[in-house]
Amino acid sequence: MLQPYASPVERAWYYGMRGLVGLILAFLFLPILVIVPLSFNADSFLMYPMSGFSLRWYEEFATSPAWRQALMNSLIVSPLATLLAMVLGTLASIGLVRAEFPGKALLTAVLISPMVVPVVVIGVAMYIFFAPLGLTGSYTGLVLAHAILGVPFVVTTVTATLQGFDFNLVRAASSLGANPLTTFFRVTLPMVAPGIISGGLFAFATSFDEVVVTLFLASPEQATLPRQMFAGIRENISPTIAAVATILIVLSTLMLMTLEWLRRRAERMRGARS
Amino acid sequence: MSTAVDTSAALPLPAAGDGTPLKKRLRRAERRRNLLFGALILPLALVVLVAFIWPIGSLLTIGVDNPEIHDNLPRTLAVLEDWNGSAPPAETAYRALADELTAAKGSPAIAAIAKRLNRENAGYRSLVMKTARKLPLDAAVPAREALVAIDAQWGELATWQAIHRAGGALTPFYLLASIDRMIDADGNIVVAPEEERIYVDVLLRTFWMSLIVTVCCLVLGFPVAYLMASLSTRHSNMLMIFVLLPFWTSVLVRVAAWIVLLQNEGLVNRLLMWLGLTDSPLQLLFNRFGVYVAMDHILLPFMVLPLYSVMKGISPVYMRAALSLGCPPFRSFWKIYFPQTLPGIGAGGLLVFIMCMGYYITPALLGGPKEQMLSYFIAFYTNQTINWGMAAALSAVLLAATLLLYMVYARYLGPTRVKYMKAR
To answer: Where's the ABC transmembrane type-1 domain (chain A) (predicted)?
Structure first.
């Protein structure tokens, strides 16, 4: 806080700092907002000034077979990949937190490694490996690849949540006669659900925004939304891209809000316990 | 003691007169628990091993794989095993080669042999293809005579040395090529001819561009994190939204936004012309500038988040102490506060650098030919020219650089912060 008795230098520092940060945040934030109005532009150029208001680019998005197919593909691949990543990742996280065995650190590193290895390398490796197995140009291959890319986010968030989880609650449940399955669904799961959901959100965002591996693995019939956008930006950038971008911005805002809500909820619960 | 409590709940108490000592039963129960929980890891471990680690491992082996001669001319190579290498080999080697080339004729194998030998000496491709056209040989004539009659090069020592050299199961060729080196006829590692030297440049460019992006991210990210750490939680949470929304927005949306802004008739050029800073639109896209701007925009949150979490943990007491002891503000900032942020700078910097090195989308969409980094060439050799050996070797270089930096990051700067990494 700026004190009333602050020296001129302190004042300059105080306002200078805020001005600078404001500019940097504008650099982060404004570019994203700039594209939104253009999606309502009446003519077909992606530039200002706009010639009038129109929803034609949303109509174009909704009716063009290529974009519809891309949306469909994204809505098939991403949820399935997320589900797979969440189930496998959550089980593995419970194992990683509860079991003790030699080489655990190495195994954890291996399970998290898809996050570290450059995506291009992952794409090439999977392409060369999947091709002879008939998994390129198939939904199975794409879902599998996206799930693997999402797994590290689930594993890191869920292990972090589990480390703060009091396993005496599980002991209490079993000592009161609940079987392990009941204990899991009635005690463990509700407590670690926020971690699983935020891990899942990360995994979903990863898959829903994934281009590079998809470029290698997907046939044109499996082009996802980002893949289609990549092609659109590269070939001829039209206001349809702006319309899709706007929809994606709304979606990411929703995901961010969900995550923020989960974080606050977790904070409240921690506060309530201590 | 906690482990004892842990398992006793799941176990019936030792019955009186039961021979097994409690300690042993405890160990057994713990083992069982470990197996049970360990089994939960199994499905994921299997999926990751089979569909991730294995493909990457086999990609890396492609980079040193050398099957063309080894698999297609095994008999010739077997004969050459006992060859002294100082003069062209005996008739048996010629016969074996002629037979094996005849067998390979008309299949993709012959093209593979020709291509591989051509790498030893430009011109061997036509030698092999020409010879293959004239095969099979007349069995009555000695193979040596017949082959030399087709082309005199078969009588030369160098040709056989080339076959012998190319016959190993593994080759360092691609790995050496990825650092602009090659093996000459005498088996020495030498610098590749000037017109073929590109990868060291690409590698240096990748490092250089990543470094610039990292430094820019640090310069932009530091004040943001600093201010956020000094504000109350409510205010810093508000600022955080400005950082997190771009972070969650699709990379392609942001690339499209920068195209809108930076194109010739874009807002940035209009602003510059309106301000009178330039008369004609500047070229801001499809060059370094565009790539730097978009990369910084995409990677800035990865710098701000670790910096913020480190700065949040720095107690303001030290600064106050320095100030109250008469140290000037800037000096106390530099001497007291700044050193405490170094873990955050290290973590954010390495994170941004690592992600930047492997970036493909932004340079591909916003850069010109001179902005393409390693990833571009890896994709190029996989999809366009189908030179998997080269793609694999360049992948190995990129992977090695990434893992090395990542190990530094995980070792010194805490693996917990990896959660900030997001899809590129």
So the answer is: 71-260
Task: Please give, rounded to a whole number of angstroms, the shortest distance from the CA of A41 to a CA of chain B.
Answer: 13
CA neighbours closer than 13 Å in the CB half-sphere of residue A239: 23
Q: Which of B44, B59, B239 sits opposite A25 (nearest CB)?
A: B239
Phi first, then psi: give them for residue A263, nearest 5 degrees: -65, -45
- Provide DSSP, B20-89: S-HHHHHHHHHHHHHHHHHHHHHHHHHHHIIIIIHHHHHHHHHTTB-HHHHHH-HHHHHHHTT--SSS--
Which residue type is seen at A132? P
Would you tell me which CATH number, out of the four given (1.10.3720.10, 3.40.47.10, 2.60.40.2550, 2.60.40.10), belongs to the domain A65-237? Answer: 1.10.3720.10
B6 contact residues in A (CB cutoff 8 A): 167, 171
Q: Which residue has the tokens 């809500």?
A: A261
Dist CA A195 CA A158 (whole Å): 5
CATH placement of domain B199-420: 1.10.3720.10
Domain ranges of chain B: 23-58, 67-169, 199-420
Q: Is B256 within 8 Å of A245 (Cβ atoms)?
A: yes
> Which chain B positions have a beta carbon within 8 Å of A114's beta carbon?
48, 52
Is B170 strand, coil or helix?
Answer: strand
Contact A125 B9 (CB under 8 A): no
Angle between helices A139-163 and A119-130 (to 10 degrees): 130
Cα end-to-end span (Å), chain B: 46
Distance from C-alpha of B251 to C-alpha of B297, rounded to nearest angstrom: 10
- Out of A91, A120, A229, the one facing B375 most closely (by C-beta) is A120
- A91: which residues sit within 8 A by CB, 6+ positions away? B40, B41, B43, B44
d(CA B240, CA B245): 8
Average pLDDT over residues A134-150: 95
Query: What distance in Å separates the CA atoms of residue A89 and residue A151, rounded to the nearest whole number?
Result: 6
Take residue B322 and report the two structure tokens written for it.
Answer: 């320095």
Q: Count the Cβ atoms, other than its own, within 10 Å of residue B169.
A: 11
Report the alpha-carbon angle B104-B109-B111, nearest 5: 110
Measured distance CA(A149)–CA(A82) in Å, rounded: 10
Write out pLDDT tens, residues B226-285.
Answer: 999 999 888 988 899 899 999 899 999 999 999 999 988 888 998 999 898 888 888 888
Give the position of tokens 């954890």.
A108
